[in-house]
Amino acid sequence: MRASSTARRLSVVRQSPSAGDKRDLILKAATKVFARNGFFNSQVADVARVAGVAAGTVYLYFEGKDDLLVSIFEQSMGTVLAEGRAAIAGVADPAERLRVIARLHLERLGRDKDLAVVFQVELRQSVKFMERFSESFLQDYFTLIRQAIADGLQAGTFRKGLSATTATKIFFGALDEMATNWVLSRRKHDLRAEADAVVDLFINGVKRP
Amino acid sequence: MRASSTARRLSVVRQSPSAGDKRDLILKAATKVFARNGFFNSQVADVARVAGVAAGTVYLYFEGKDDLLVSIFEQSMGTVLAEGRAAIAGVADPAERLRVIARLHLERLGRDKDLAVVFQVELRQSVKFMERFSESFLQDYFTLIRQAIADGLQAGTFRKGLSATTATKIFFGALDEMATNWVLSRRKHDLRAEADAVVDLFINGVKRP
DNA sequence: CCGGAGAATGAATGACCATTCATTCAGTCC
DNA sequence: GGACTGAATGAATGGTCATTCATTCTCCGG
Question: Which of A107-116 are b and which e, b meaning 16 or more Cβ less than 10 Å from the residue's Cβ?
């Protein structure tokens, strides 16, 4: 977390044909290693070994150990946000838009257990880390959700007087807990299948109508 | 996380008048230090200094650094569970019981920022830690919630066909996210005040009736 | 086939810190 | 007051890695 050099930028500039591949390779290895041992119990050398490169090579593509974790987050969130925006682009109904988001959210994590572990557990290392994440991509993700809720309020399909911000946190919290629970539970149920239950409960509540 | 000796048990047996006090003192110091630096970036020596004792003294009361973290969790959860059970004992209405739980949950964390940080961030260090926690006290906490929901289903005040387990995760997830968000947000709103919003949304959903 | 440039290597370095334990301290009893 | 006991101390130890960088490898143009 110390350095602030240009390693990443350089790696982008590097023209060798397999440069991007190797970066991805290391990132994938890091995801696996961090997921299985935890970030602080993982050695950079482990990541290198799993990636099939020497320890020093990691430092050609990343600023240091911390940068590996940060990069996993940034890369995944970048993809997720892009996919999310694309997926809801054509969906007008706010409730339906929330459903799309919930499905994407749980499907993505349910597809890659290691990534899910890193997201649900390893990324929450320290307040400093989390504050940093919360401020960037995660903020955008929250905005995606809040927008749908705000639209529902605007359109009058959602109850008046609701706080969009609070509802957003609750919606995200519900999804987040489903994912965490899945990561920690021994018996592996289908995470994706739970998206509809979350959305349904969020829309209708538990009370008998 | 290695040893499994009897340090803790001994400290309970110890008869010196201030033994319990000192253990608490160290635990409180650990909460503060872990909250501010993160568990892995904290040194046992820091905890000792804040507690006003020598480094070695910590080992008279705890098995090691890990035991500090585990003990913070166990002590707090023990209290919370006892308080929670007592508080809902006289409350018959399931929805009202959920309200009591939500208030207690957010009030307790809102009262002690350091404790909140440790619970929302530091305790989620690694899957190994979390699995261990999930299996013990947290399981009991979930049961507390699930029972209220099951009762609501039984009584017919909650919608038929709902999965109590899923609803429990969603309810807990919502509370959990409120707490995490509070911990990470710069402007300190009143966490306790959000309990009602969570319960209300959980009961009624967002849709206009 | 040679020279050179960029990539990759991995052994060596230097910090860092949990834990131990020989020593000191403080209180109690006779 | 002196000997005993358990509590507390904190300097020393040992092990663990992140990171560096001198060296080796690979590949390409001429």
Answer: ebbbebebbb
H helix and E strand count, chain B: 11, 0
Q: How is residue B36 written in tokens?
A: 């501010």
Tokens (6 digits) for A128: 């400093």
Residue of A126, A165, A186 to mutate for B, most B C-beta atoms under 10 A: A126
Rounded Cα distance between B46 and B42, Å, is: 7
List the one residue out of A3, A64, A39, A1 whose CA is nearest residue A123. Answer: A39
In one-letter notation, the amino acid at residue B31 is T
- Angstrom distance (rounded) from CA A182 to CA A176: 10
Asked whether the beta carbons of B149 and B171 are under 8 A apart, the reply is: yes
Tokens 């982008």, residue? A12
Walk along chain B (209 residues) and give the pLDDT tens digit of each residue.
333 333 333 333 333 344 568 999 999 999 999 999 999 999 999 999 999 999 999 999 999 999 999 999 999 999 999 999 999 999 999 999 999 999 999 999 999 999 999 999 999 877 888 888 888 899 999 999 999 999 999 999 999 999 999 999 999 999 999 999 999 998 889 999 999 999 999 999 999 98
CA–CA gap between residue A208 and residue B114 (Å, rounded)? 39
Q: From residue B136, how far is each of B77, B132, B143, B174 by CA, in Å? A: 10, 7, 11, 21
The pTM is what?
Answer: 0.89
Q: Are B205 and A202 in contact (CB under 8 A)?
A: yes
**CA–CA gap between residue A197 and residue A203 (Å, rounded):** 10
CB A166 within 8 A of CB B201: yes
The DSSP output letter for B207 is B
- Between positions 145 and 204 of A, the ones with CB within 8 A of B are 149, 152, 156-160, 162-163, 166-167, 169-170, 172-178, 180-181, 183-184, 194, 197-198, 201-204
